[in-house]
Amino acid sequence: MKQNNINDSNIHTDFMIGGPNVIVEGIKDDGSKVTLIKDNQFQI
């Protein structure tokens, strides 16, 4: 994993995501969407 710059621990593994074409959305209990990451920036 180290060759891919992935943070590995005994508790969890982190992956960094992002980029100019990446949009990350969460879905709320009511089904509506909230944008978390867009244009390489956190939106919340």
Poorly predicted sequence stretches spanning 5 or more consecutive residues: none
- Output the helix-strand order: EEEEE
Q: Which oligomerization state do the chains in this entry correspond to?
A: single chain
Q: Give helix % range.
A: under 10%
Radius of gyration: 14 Å
- Silhouette: flat
Structural class: mainly beta
Number of alpha- plus pi-helical segments: 0
Profile the largest sheet: 3 strands, antiparallel
If you average the pLDDT, what whole number results?
82
Distance between the termini: 29 Å
Strand order of the largest sheet: 3-4-5
Polypeptide structure, described:
With 44 residues, the chain is mainly β. The protein has a domain at 17-44. The protein has strands spanning 7-8, 13-14, 23-27, 33-38, 41-42. It has a three-stranded antiparallel β-sheet with strand order 3-4-5, with no helix packed on it. A hairpin with a 2-residue loop joins strand 4 and strand 5 (41-42). The mean pLDDT is 82.
